[in-house]
Specification:
Blueprint lengths: L5 H9 L3 H7 L4 H10 L4 H11 L22 H16 L2 E9 L4 E8 L8 H10 L28 H8 L2 H32 L6 H20 L7
Antiparallel strand pairs: 1-2
Length: 235
């Protein structure tokens, strides 16, 4: 678990005000306080903060005070596999939000959650992902064993994030995340429709052609997501 409250401790140790630290980091003091309160931030931001205070990023994952000197050794193939998982889940509507080191099993346990917006990689991102896949595929790292990953992926204007996520995931992973992602979208759209109908009924609003169209659009979305939420249907 991350402990961003340590930013306050570091400010006190370095004799720097929160306002000054925020300014040096290129953000407002309010944003820095919000970041600490939510105890959540982007990896790039965390790296910038660690660099600013001259500590290892692992410092913020250690519950004890003081600079941490504990490190976890991970095999290169495991790290490569983890990177592929992060990319795949992000592209497909998920994001790895927490990693926990399991002392007993000597491995990372990862937990993911739904993202409200899917990651749409740029061409540069796709080229980077392509380079990650240059090495021979291995089912243990989450790469579809039937995919030839010995050579670099040929990127064209038609290459989509979905194409990449299929390469980075096994079929079961792709089917499961597809079903889960679209079931969440279906639920959200259904709630939106219910709120709209409730508002119309409560205020006795006339259902004009425009309102009827909006209701129909939401119902069509629910039907669309409903089909997609069936395992294998969105393959």
């Amino acid at each position: 678990m991350v402990y961003l409250s340590k930013i306050r401790e570091l400010c006190e140790k370095r004799g720097v005000s929160m306002k000054q630290a925020a300014s040096d980091l290129g953000m407002t003091e309010q944003s820095l306080h919000k970041l600490i309160k939510s105890n959540s931030t982007k990896i790039d931001t965390l790296l910038s903060i660690a660099d600013y205070f001259k500590v290892e990023p692992a410092y913020f994952f250690d519950q004890t005070a003081g600079d941490t000197k504990q490190y976890v050794k991970v095999r290169r193939e495991e790290l490569t596999g983890l990177i592929k998982k992060v990319l795949a889940y992000s592209i497909h509507g998920f994001g790895l939000i927490k990693l926990e080191w399991d002392e007993e099993d000597g491995k990372f346990n990862s937990y993911f959650d739904i993202l409200y917006k899917q990651y749409n990689p740029t061409r540069e991102d796709l080229e980077y992902i392509s380079s990650v896949l240059e090495k021979e595929g291995d089912s243990k790292t989450g790469i579809n064993a039937s995919t030839n990953t010995d050579t670099k992926i040929e990127l064209t204007d038609d290459t989509s994030p979905k194409d990449i996520s299929k390469l980075l995931m096994t079929k079961d992973e792709f089917d499961f995340t597809s079903a889960y992602y679209y079931s969440i979208k279906k639920m959200q759209t259904h709630e939106e429709l219910q709120r709209l109908l409730s508002f119309i009924g409560k205020h006795r609003i006339e259902r004009t052609a425009l309102i009827e169209k909006e209701i129909q659009d939401l119902q069509d979305k629910i039907n669309y997501y409903g089909v997609k939420s069936i395992i294998g249907a969105s393959r």
